[in-house]
Sequence to fold (406 residues):
Amino acid sequence: MAEKAQKLESYVWEGKDRKGNKSQGELTGANLALVKAQLRKQGIIPNKVKKKPKPLFGGSKKITPFDIAMLTRQLATMMKAGVPLVQSFDIVADGLENKGLQQLVMNIRNDISSGTSFAGALRKHPKYFDDLYCNLVDSGEKAGALEQMLDRIATYLEKTELLKKKVKKAMTYPIAVIVVAIVVTAILLVKVVPQFESLFQGFGAELPVFTQMVVRLSEWMQTWWFVVLLAIVGTIFLFKEAVRRSQKFSDLVDKLVLKLPVVGEILDKSAVAKFGRVLSTTFAAGVPLVDALDSVAGATGNAVYRDAIQRIKNDVSSGTQLQASMRQQDVFPIMAVQLTAIGEESGNLDEMLAKVAEHYEAVVDDMVDNLTALMEPMIMAVLGVLVGGLIIAMYLPIFQMGQVVG
Fold:
């Protein structure tokens, strides 16, 4: 019942300030009485306070990883300024527009104010806070350095989300080229070619082989276009289901993806950047290296690196140096291994791993920019070949007829 009473609602109000000037605004609170009390504390005499009407369409926005990164940054900033944790949650919640995120923040705040640890409150929401996040917060609480830990987590989340965004951008371009090429070709075959076909019937001469091929393909597409569409949609659906349900198939896809030209290299370097970023953050937080490697294995986003890191963990736990085990795996770039070796020798492993992350994040950034520049003319070239080829096929009979008449 207590949790239900604490559920936040948005209220719009009108009133007068201490000087008698009219003012209005919006305030979040658990109920009408508490909102009026808050207004009086602020020196406002409320005349009208009512619940903010909910929009007709759409509910709460989805809570994204970027929202969690922003929330963590805000909490870190406030705690560094000396604001107590519970009060920090109140301030953050008051400024949030996403009602779903606002409710999440207040649920955590209520758990903490009732005596639950910060990490314990977060663990009640595994959809938004993974084990790595909760473990780091737990370490920060126990060490009495929660504000520094939140700052580190915020940096880690911001960098990781930025990297994901870049990788997604790199993957989107090739897919866009394929989709545009398929759509344009289908439209030409179904709508344009039949117009020429009716014209060719009056020629009374045999059509060139290339034109015949295009005409037959057009006739087939007009008859079976829905089958082609269903096959494409079905293939995409089955592929996604196979990746989700079969670990072996998912691992095989991860291995094959790394062998793709350009895109594979981007994914490879992004996995190395994630390895450096996560291991640097966890190791700097005081997590033992073997335990930190456990967290890193699942965070790289690729089965090849996940398996390699698990082997490294086994080696390190039996006394092997991190850099020596990394070298044996034959998946990590030489520079990443060398920087790790320097970190181990100098006792600044977390700093060197952060440099690994920064270097490969910059590499991914450059590669994505280069891919973007490369794909623009490639899109034009692919569309030019497809459209130009179909146009040539359609005009060949007209050219031949012109030569005969000449």
About this structure: The CA atoms of residues 19 and 229 lie 68 Å apart.
